[in-house]
Write a structure and sequence with these properties.
Elements lengths: L1 E7 L1 H4 L3 E6 L3 E6 L9 H13 L9 E5 L7 E7 L2 H14 L1 H4 L5 H20 L10 H14 L7 E11 L2 E10 L2 E8 L2 E8 L3 E7 L7 E6 L2 E6 L4 H20 L1 H5 L21 E8 L2 E9 L3 E6 L7 E5 L3 E5 L5 H12 L10 H18 L7 H5 L9 H20 L9 H9 L3 H12 L1 H7 L3 H9 L5 H9 L13 H17 L9 H11 L2 H15 L9 H17 L1 H6 L4 H13 L7 H14 L1 H14 L1 H6 L3 H13 L1 E2 L25 E2 H12 L4 H31 L7 H20 L21 E2 L1 H11 L8 H12 L7 E2 H13 L2 H11 L21 H8 L1 H4 L4 H9 L10 H12 L14 H14 L6 H24 L3 H15 L10 H4 L14 H9 L2 H8 L4 H18 L1
Parallel strand pairs: 18-19
Antiparallel strand pairs: 1-5, 2-3, 3-4, 4-5, 6-7, 6-12, 7-8, 8-9, 10-11, 11-12, 13-14, 15-16, 16-17, 20-21
Helix pairs in contact: 7-29, 12-13, 13-24, 14-20, 15-20, 16-18, 17-18, 18-19, 18-20, 19-20, 21-23, 21-29, 24-25, 25-28, 29-30, 30-45, 31-32, 31-45, 40-43
Function: Involved in vesicular recycling, probably as a RAB11B GTPase-activating protein.
GO biological process, one term: vesicle-mediated transport
GO molecular function, one term: GTPase activator activity
Length: 1069
């Protein structure tokens, strides 16, 4: 590698470097200890250790070239090399292209300047085709060289950054270098002859956290596949941890959570990730007031509300933002205020004041009103609470008076802090929310706090359009919606009437139509019912969008990953804030199971409706933080009772009794609707708890929980939750597969890891398709991970005992076609492991039967590479082409019918009945009788014989095996000859014709019988064919062949070798 010219001190360097070549202008040196017997002794070990600890380029580049001039003592390093071949190439280039030119110059300074210019030009040329861009510092180029040489990863693997640190191997710290790349965490250390290389893929990380103990003041703990790794002695540990967290979550989302990955365009190209990777929200402009580390107040604008952005020309460095409603905000003393103003104009699509025209916004408002009028023809334009519980202003009781006082307090706040999206949010705002939002303002403020008001403003008429398109559709989501409609707040009069039920149906169906990836999930009906009570129907729809897609991400899908992540966060908060409860109940999964409904329904399903609505107020203001705080407050309130509980059932009873006694003394709802007031007399002896007091207490005790901490805990626990789900999937797959194979559970576990890893490796460096293909967690366990023919070939080369055969690509192709019974060009782990199990543990008959089936249709197809120089090796395009041959034209009607009726894999609605039928067929499938196998025709038998010859190559008994197969072949041919003589030529021809048809030989194949090639020749020789019994009986007579196929295979060693060489084989490819 060419290096940026830098001065070196040759006097001290001579102790560490040895001279190899020299001339008047250049010197080639070798690092002491390299290529010396015994590693150069103690000096070599010390030099190697020094190179590793001090991050010397010489560790991975033990050769270098220096530039010198005859009358100067200054030397410049201009090139380094990892091996003699590389450095010799650079030396030869210098002699051929530079040496002759240097004699022309008169002064040493001119020579040095010329050499430096040439080297910089070479570096710039190399940079065009390298991931180390031109603006990368020289150190990073050297680090990239070390990273590539040390770990041997493909050149497409993008190195993000690297850090000096210590890796703890037991109780011994090993000083070295940590390299963070897009797909791997890698560590390298060399101390006194002991070399440590560690490569961990981000997708295998289940825990990533900062820890500290007596020995390690601060370290980063990485858990991968049950192994714990600790890294410490970082210069900037927080920066390192943050970047590791981002890369780990990027990999998890990319491989296991494609839905959120697809919706994030920033993550589309893994090669664009850098150390400065960050995500920007394009929807809002926010301003926070930081008071002693706390954000007491803040204001934000939706970008579409911004009318103009301007900057002042004075020394105040001010930016002025004008928004709708004739309001302007001035921000002074802004650093880089000119760049900020330009960026805001770009983001908001706003102009400066002098060029701004207000008419477009007026047109927007008119358009919005028009759309609302059109929408009113289809949907309700009033909240259900105003229809079923209108306020009676003539008869004001004490509760209604309190409600009016709340409204007055909010009106005063609006007058002081603004109303709508430009409203300041202060401590006073929070206090009013804790007291409960007035009924008349609830819908408006929910829309404001959640951001749904902005979504509705940017999509006028969208809801009415979606309602019109979705009504009348029938699918799995609509069936589930219809089933749950009557279960949604059934005690409320609004949902005992057709008005409320119809509105609920429209909102849920419209959302399922809008977001088919989520569709409909239980608990959405309860939440939507509450929204419809206080918001107009269209507003309720956009509130549901805000909750499902922003405020509670990944909650409402098949795996409810988001809810499980927040359950893990809740457990962590319980350990931190309620340690005595943790000591009493060591298994905190109980709280996860109990609190799942709290999070999914925002306490609506467990609290009386008049109390639950106050919780929803706080949720829309504070997000998930409000729910976590309230959960802790509830456990804290019941702490003494929970500590006396002897089992989970008693604890559940205690919490349910508590929820029944939560009231809202200020609720203006009629007593007929309130649930808390309908408690029986027997339960009245229990202490009543007011929801306002409970929420206030949760804020006072646990209000110090920060959003940043919740985000960090979410990121950390997301890794654990997803890896736990993956482990559950693996255990279920292994339990099913283990019943049909002879491989042990441990061997199956190793095989599954290799199978899954190959699927991941296929998308690591694929820019065109960065997300994981053939993975759908919504499918049954066996179908979640599937591989295509290209991936199967790679695994076949790694695992098959027959992979040394010259025609191994053809064998891999035929095996894949045999396993792909439903012709979708994908196979699952059960199908894959069944073939590997026969190769490893099958009897002589089973292995021979597998080979026989590989050489008859539907598995067999004639294979010829387009490039004769490659022999039997197939390109990726050829492999995919041959694997799909039988897809377009199934062999017979029965196969075509099975393809048609097979359940769809990952496309649209899942046919559960088809899966059940398929499972039942597999369960009662009888073992295949060898007599049912079709006969093998002439061309197929020739290929079968060639395969056997290839398998025997380089075997210790190679000669005897070749003789045995020659004997068997001649014997079978003689048997067939005798059989033909016993029949007339006509009957033989007819018999053979029927054989070809029975075996499914394709009529268009070139190696057809002579009868088909030349129909005008009535005396053409009929082809011969063999049954499997004939071939089996003949081969059993040869002991050498029997020994070859029954030779035991060290499965454990084979799997270990495959695991270590899997990444290396991908690098070669």
């Amino acid at each position: 590698m060419w290096l940026k010219p830098e001065e070196v001190l040759l006097k001290n360097a001579l102790k560490l470097w040895l001279m190899e070549r020299s001339n008047d202008y250049f010197v080639l040196q070798r690092r002491r200890g390299y290529e010396e017997e015994g590693g150069g002794g103690l000096t070599g070990l010390l030099v190697g250790t020094l190179d590793s600890v001090l991050d010397s380029t010489a560790k991975v580049a033990p050769f270098r070239i220096l530039h010198q001039t005859p009358d100067s003592q200054v030397y410049l390093s201009i090139a380094c090399g990892a091996n003699r071949e590389e450095i010799t190439k650079h030396w030869d280039w210098l002699e051929q292209n530079i040496m002759k030119t240097l004699s022309v110059f008169d002064s040493s300074a001119d020579i040095t300047n010329f050499v430096q210019g040439k080297i910089r030009g070479l570096i710039a040329e190399e940079g065009k085709h390298s991931f180390a861009k031109e603006d990368d510092p020289e150190k990073f180029r050297e680090a990239l060289l070390k990273f590539e040489k040390c770990f041997g990863l493909p050149e497409q693997e993008k190195l993000v950054t690297y850090y000096s640190c210590s890796y703890w191997k037991g109780r011994v710290p090993c000083q070295g270098w940590l390299y963070l790349s897009t797909n791997f965490l890698s560590f390298y250390s060399f101390l006194l002859g002991s070399e440590i290389k560690l490569i961990i893929s981000w997708d295998a990380v289940s825990k990533l956290e900062k820890t500290s103990n007596v020995i390690l003041t601060e370290s980063i703990h990485v858990c991968s596949q049950g192994e714990n790794h600790y890294f410490s002695m970082f210069l900037h540990i927080n920066q390192t941890y943050l970047l590791m967290e981002q890369l780990a979550n990027y990999a998890i989302r990319r491989l296991f959570d494609k839905e959120t990955f697809d919706n994030d365009p920033i993550l589309d190209d893994p090669l664009q990730i850098t150390k400065r990777y960050a995500k920007v929200d394009h929807g809002y402009v926010c301003f926070f007031i930081n008071n002693k580390g706390k954000y007491d107040s803040f204001i934000y604008f939706f970008t579409l509300q911004v009318l103009a952005i301007d900057k002042t020309n004075d020394s105040s460095k001010s930016v002025i933002i004008s928004i709708k409603g004739k309001t302007a905000f001035r921000f002074s003393e802004v650093k880089d205020f000119e760049q900020l103003a330009a960026k805001l104009r770009l983001k908001c699509g706003a102009a400066s004041t002098q060029y701004h025209d207000i008419r477009p916004s007026d047109h927007f408002e008119v358009q919005s009103l028009t759309c609302q009028r059109e929408c009113s023809k289809t949907v309700n334009t009033e909240a259900l609470m105003t229809v079923f519980h209108p306020q009676n202003l003539e008869n004001l009781n004490s509760k209604m008076l309190k409600e009016k006082m709340k409204e007055q307090s909010w009106n005063i706040l609006f007058a002081e802090c603004g109303r709508g999206v430009s409203m300041f949010r202060t401590k006073r705002t929070r206090d009013l929310v804790v007291r409960g939002i007035p009924e008349t303002l609830r819908g408006e403020l929910w829309m404001l706090f959640s951001g749904a008001v902005n979504d509705m403003a940017t999509n006028p008429g969208y809801y009415a359009e979606v309602v019109e398109k979705s009504l009348g559709t029938s699918n799995l989501a609509t069936e589930e919606i219809e089933r749950d409609l009557r279960r949604s707040l059934p005690e409320h009069p609004a949902f005992q009437s057709d008005t409320g039920i119809s509105a609920l149906r429209r909102v849920l169906t419209a959302y399922a139509y809008r977001n088919p990836k989520i569709g409909y999930c239980q608990a959405m009906n309860i939440l939507t019912s509450m929204l419809l009570l206080y918001a107009k129907e269209e507003e309720a729809f956009w509130l549901l969008v805000a909750v499902c897609e922003r405020m509670l991400p990944d909650y409402f899908n098949r795996r409810i990953i988001g809810a499980l992540v927040d359950q893990a966060v809740f457990e962590e908060l319980i350990r931190d804030h309620l340690p005595q409860l943790t000591e009493h109940m060591t298994d905190l999964t109980f709280f996860s199971s109990v609190s799942l409904s709290w999070f999914l329904t925002l306490f609506i399903s467990v609290l009386p409706i008049e109390s639950a609505v106050n919780v929803v107020d706080c949720f829309f203001y504070d997000g998930i933080k409000a729910i976590l705080q309230l959960g802790l407050a509830i456990l804290d309130y019941n702490l003494d009772k929970l500590l006396t509980c002897k089992d989970d059932a008693e604890a559940v009873t205690t919490l349910n009794r508590f929820f029944d006694n939560v009231t809202n003394k200020d609720s203006p709802l009629p007593s007929s609707v309130q649930q808390g007031s309908n408690v029986s007399d027997e339960k009245s002896s229990h202490i009543r708890v007011d929801i306002t007091d409970l929420i206030r207490e949760s804020n006072e005790k646990y209000g110090n929980i920060r959003y940043e901490d919740i985000h960090t805990m979410r990121c950390r626990n997301r890794l654990y939750v997803i890896q736990t789900l993956e482990e559950t999937t693996k255990q279920n797959v292994l339990r099913v597969v283990s019943q049909d194979v002879k491989l042990s559970l441990r061997e199956l576990d190793e095989l599954y890891i290799i199978f899954k890893k190959e699927l991941f490796l296929s998308c690591y460096w694929c820019v065109s398709c960065p997300v994981l293909k053939h993975h759908d967690p919504s499918l049954p366990y066996l179908e979640q991970y599937q591989i295509d023919c290209q991936q199967f070939r790679a695994l076949y080369h790694l695992l098959s005992p027959w992979a040394h055969s010259a025609n191994r690509d053809s064998l891999a192709l035929w095996t894949f076609r045999l396993l792909d019974e439903n012709s979708d060009c994908l196979i699952n782990f059960k199908e894959f492991s069944s073939a590997i199990d026969i190769m490893y543990n099958g009897s002589f008959t089973e292995k021979l039967k597998l080979l026989f089936k590989l050489h008859i249709p539907p598995a067999y197809t004639e294979v010829k590479s387009k490039d004769p120089s490659k022999g039997d090796e197939l390109s990726k395009e050829e492999l995919l082409y041959f694997s799909q041959l039988h897809v377009s034209k199934p062999a017979n009607e029965k196969e075509a019918k099975s393809v048609k009726n097979s359940p769809e894999k990952g496309k649209g609605k899942i046919d559960i009945q088809a899966y059940l039928s398929q499972w039942q067929d597999d369960l009662f499938k009888k073992e295949e009788n060898i007599k049912d196998l079709p006969r093998m025709n002439q061309s197929q038998f020739i290929q079968f014989s060639k395969t056997l010859y290839n398998l025997f190559h380089e075997d210790p008994e190679e000669e005897s095996l070749y003789q045995a197969i020659a004997v068997v072949t001649s014997l079978l041919l003689r048997m067939e000859e005798v059989g033909r003589k016993l029949h007339s030529p006509t009957s033989s021809a007819k018999g053979f014709s029927g054989t070809v048809c029975a075996s499914g030989g394709p009529s268009e194949r070139k190696t057809e019988s002579h009868l088909e090639e030349d129909p005008s020749s009535p005396k053409a020789e009929p082809q011969w064919s063999f049954a499997f019994e004939q071939i089996l009986a003949s081969l059993l007579n040869e002991p050498a062949l029997v020994r070859f196929f029954e030779k035991p295979i060290d499965v454990k060693a084979k799997l270990e070798n495959a695991k270590t060489s899997q990444l290396r084989s991908r690098t070669k490819m």
